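Reading group handout, session on sequence-to-structure problems. Before we discuss, look at one worked example. The prompt was deliberately terse, the way you'd type it at a terminal:

> structure MFS transporter

The input record follows.
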Amino acid sequence: MGGKCMNTQGAVEKPPYGVIAILFVGAFVSILNETLLNVALPSIMKEFDASASAVQWLSTGYMLVNGVLIPASAFFVQKFTNRKLFILAMSLFTVGTVLASFAPSLGVLLAARMIQASGSAIMMPLLMNVMLFSFPVERRGAAMGLFGLVMITAPAIGPTLSGWLIEHYSWRTLFDVVIPIAAITLLFSIFKLKNVTPQRNIKLDILSLILSSIGFGGLLYGFSSAGEKGWDSVYVDIPIAVGLIGLLLFIFRQLRLDEPLLEFRIYRYPMFALSSAISVVLSMAMFSAMLLMPIYVQTLRGISPLHSGMLMLPGALVMGLMSPITGKLFDKFGARILAVSGLIVTIYTTHLFSNLTLDTSYSYLMILYTLRMFGMSMVMMPVMTNGLNQLPQSMNPHGTAMNNTLQQVSGAVGSAFLVTLMQNRTESEAEKLAEAAMKEMPAGTQPDPAQMAEMKAHIMNEAMLHGINFSFTISVYIALAALILAFFMKRVKPTKEPHKEHSLEM
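And the output record:
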C-alpha cells in the first residue's frame, strides 16, 4: 500500500494528515456553500424579477441533488480512488461556483447550483471514509471531532457571513469569495493528494440508482414543500407517496443483491442501528432552533438578517470549538456519558425556548442558543462515531452514506413537521384571540380601520409566538426520546472483517 503499514483495524499506522487537510478544506467550502445563499434569496428575486417559489429552488434543488447522490456515494467510494473522486468532486464544485458568479439568468444560476451540489454530495462521505480508514478505533473520537468541526461550523457560519456580505456587496460576492479557495484546493489535490483507501471492483446497479433517486428525492421534495404549500397539496402528497414506494422497492432490491448500492444489512449491528435512531431523532429536534429562531427573531422582533445571524454565531463557534474536545472525551469515556449529558443540556435549553415572549432580550436569546449548541456538540459526533465503530472496515462506506442520507431526510421531515405544527397552532390561536377580543369590546361599538389593523397585527404576533413556543415544546419531547435511547449505548469494537478480496488502485 505505497509503503504504509497497516494496524489491526486496517487503518494506516501514520495517518495521512496532508490528504486529510486537503479534504477538510474542500468539505468546509462545500458545506459552507449550502447555507450561504439562504439570506441572499430576496436579492436574487429582485435582480431576476422571480417569484419566491422559483428562487426557493436554488436551495431545494441543491438539497435534492445531495439527497439523490449521497446514497450512491458508497458505490463511488469503493469503486474509485479517493484521489480521482475528490478531484472530480472539487472540479464540479469549482465549475458550478464560477458559473453561479456570472449567471445571467435564474435558470443558469439554478443549473450552477445543481453542478455545485453534485460535487458537494461526494465530499462529506469521502472525507468520513478516509478518516475512518486512517485512524484506529481508539483514536477515532479525536479524529471525528475534527471532522465535526467542519460539519458543524461551516453551515452555522454561513448565514452570518452571507448576512454581512449581502449588506455591503452584491449576492454574487457569495460565490466570488469561494472561487479562489475552491480553485487552490483543486490545484493542491491534483499535485499533492495521495490514495489511502482500498478499492473494490464492483458494478453499479442502474435500477438501484433510479429507485434510490425516486425514493429519497420524492421524500425530500415532498417534506420540504409541506411547510410552504400545506399537507393537502398534490405537490406534497404525490412526491411523498411516490418517494415511499420508490424507497420500499429500493430497500427490497438491496436486500436481494450481492453487491447492493446501499447496504441495509448494516442494521444487523445493534450499536449502528441505535446511533442511527438517535441521530434521526436529534436531527429533527435540532432543526427546531435553526428554523424557528430566524422566524421569531426576524418576523416577530424585526431584527435584521445580519443581527439574526450574529445572534447564532457564538453558538456555532462554541459547537465548533467543542467538537475536537468532545472527540477526545469520547476516546476516553465513550459515547453514553457524553450523549446523556449533552441531551440533558439540550432538553433544558429547548424547554426555556418554549417560553419566549415578545420582549425576550437579545442577550438572553444569544446565551440560550449558545448553551443549546454546547449541549448538541456533546451528542452528534460521539453517537455517530460509536455506531460506525461497530462496522467492519468494508462496511464504512455504506455506514457513512446511510448516516448522511438519513440526516438529509430527517432534517426535511423535522422541518416540515415543526413548521406545520407552528402554522396550525398559530391559526387556531389567532381564532381564539380574535373571538376573545370581540367579546371584550363594548356592545354596539365598531373600531376604526386603524384600530382594527393594530388589533389584527397584535393578534397575529401573539398567535405566531404561541405557535413557535408550541413547536419548541414538541422539540423537547423529541429530544427526550433521544435521551431515553442514549442510555442503551455502550462501547463497541469493530466486527471482524468478512473474507473478501480487496485491491488497492493507485
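Points for discussion. First: The radius of gyration is 24 Å. Second: The mean pLDDT is 81.
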